[in-house]
Each structure stands twice: as C-alpha cells, then as structure tokens.
Amino acid sequence: MSAVSATAAFLRRAIGHRSFVAGGILTLALLGAALLSLVWTPWSPYEIDMASKLQPPTARHWLGTDPFGRDISSLLLVGARNSILVGVIAVGIGLVAGTALGLLAAARRGWVEETIMRLSDFTFAFPAILSAIMMTAVFGAGIVNSIVAIGIFNIPTFARITRASANALWAREFVLAARACGKGPWRITFDHILPNILSVLTVQVTIRFAIAILAEAALSYLGLGTQPPQPSWGRMLAEAQSLLFQAPLLAVFPGVTIALAVLGLNLLGDGLRDLMDPRLARKR
C-alpha cells in the first residue's frame, strides 16, 4: 500500500471514529482560543475596573466580570494560552528525558535497566503537586516551578512506556536481522526501535497533556502555579470559591473550560490509540 493510499485509509477511519472526531473538535477549540488570545481579547485581562465588578453576562461582557471587574471571557482565553504553555513544556520535558531513558534501558539491559526503573519507581512516589509544594518551599511559587514539577512527574511514565515497547521490539525478527548485519545497539535503536514506537508515544503525549493541564489548574488553585497578574483557570476557581452563592457563574465557566479541555484531549488520545493499533483498526 502506498503512502498516499495509507493516509487516505487512515483519514477515512479517523472521520468515522466518534471519539477521535469529538476530541479533535474540543482540542482544536482549545488551541484556537489560545491562538486567538495572542492577537485579540474582548477586553484586557489585566485591566481592573472595580465599578464593573461581578456583573452578569451582558452584551458588553459576554461571560460577566470577576470581583476585580476583569472580563471573564478574556481571562479564559489567556488562561488557555498559559495552560497550553505549561502543558507543552512539561510534557516535552517528560517526553525527551523519559524516552531517552527508556531507550537506554531497553538497549543496555542489566544494571543500567534496573537502575533506571528503580529511579522511575522512586520518582512515582512524588506526584506533581507534592513536588511543586516541595519546590515552592525552597524556590518560591511560580509557573516555572510548576512546569518543572509536572515535567519531572512525566519522565518515569514515558520511560516505562518506552522501555516496555522497545523491549517487545528487540525480540522481533527485523531487529535480529539488523543485529546479524552488524548494526550496533544505538544504530538499531534510532533506525528501527524509535520509529516503531512513535505511535505509542504520540498517544501518550495527548493523555499526559490532559493530565498536565489538570495539574497546572490544581497547582494554581493552591496558589503554587501561575501567579498574578497572569490569568489561570485554576486561580479563577480559587477566587470564585468565596463567592459561590453570590456569583456561582464565576466557578462554572473556568470549571467547565477545564473539564472540556481535559475531556477533549483524553478523547483524542483514545481515538489515536484505536486508529494506530493495527489490531483495533482491523476490527473496525
């Protein structure tokens, strides 16, 4: 099958996959909101107008205003940009470092593999929120510490998945043939192992991206993540907590936004997993 026909077949299956389509639409909406905030927002998300505080949704302020008179729709748009920034960098840290460690463990085996896996087990004992709390105690609260904490938490996940997938490939016939031809372990890793696990890593990136957004919101809610005046969905929830009975929509809008963003990325990841797994693809 040619590359063009294979791509066309994949697109046909993707269009017919409801989870993939729904997740793709929600994810594109998230990306679109972040990109839009770079060039336009209805109001400045940093402008305080106490005379307009806690207004309900109107034609002037589509989703109302917060306790400081800031436009909620503008805060949500810029908050999407910050969430994506944290997610991209944090997942990137986990992807690069974790994949490298997983490939190293699969290629070298022995004490190298055992050491990397035990370090991964140790890192799992410190979730992103706990790591951020410890880093905050030492370095202070901020978005950089949140990114580092979430990124470190992602490393063992990618390391384990990469190592498991690579180990399964090292026993395959085409790898044995490459070894018989005189290729070294690193040449085999980059020529044969890594290209064949990219689909697994792609699916995992979407899932970890959703977890990173959720973790960033939780850290900001606790006051450990994005700091004022930068908008954050999690901090919007924290600020709305004391006004639940006076202005419940202040909590509804960021809460629904977080839920839709995480749902979209999870659906996209599930859809990609179904589409990229040949065994599942044959069943459809």
| Overall SS class | mainly alpha
CA-CA gap between termini: 18 Å
Say what the CATH topology is: MetI-like fold
Q: Specify the biggest β-sheet.
A: none
What proportion of the residues form beta strands (DSSP E)? Answer: under 5%
Percent of residues in helices: over 70%
Q: What Rg is obtained from the alpha carbons, in whole angstroms?
A: 22 Å
Specify the overall morphology.
Answer: globular
Per DSSP E runs of 2 or more residues, the count of β-strands stands at 0
The structural domain count equals 1
- Under the CATH scheme, which architecture would be assigned? Orthogonal Bundle
Continuous helix count: 11
Task: Provide the CATH top-level class.
Answer: Mainly Alpha
- The average pLDDT value, as a whole number, equals 89
CATH superfamily: MetI-like
Low-pLDDT segments, ≥5 res: none
Task: Note the run of SSEs as H and E.
Answer: HHHHHHHHHHH
What would you say about this model in short?
This protein has helices at 3-15, 18-39, 72-108, 110-124, 128-139, 143-170, 173-180, 185-221, 233-240, 249-276, 278-283. It is an all-alpha fold and 284 residues long.
Descriptive report:
- The chain has 284 residues and is mainly α.
- It has a single domain, classed as MetI-like fold, CATH 1.10.3720.
- Helix 2 packs across helix 10, helix 3 packs antiparallel against helix 8 and helix 8 runs antiparallel to helix 10.
Features:
mainly alpha; MetI-like fold
List the helices and strands and how they pair.
Layout: H1 3-15, H2 18-39, H3 72-108, H4 110-124, H5 128-139, H6 143-170, H7 173-180, H8 185-221, H9 233-240, H10 249-276, H11 278-283
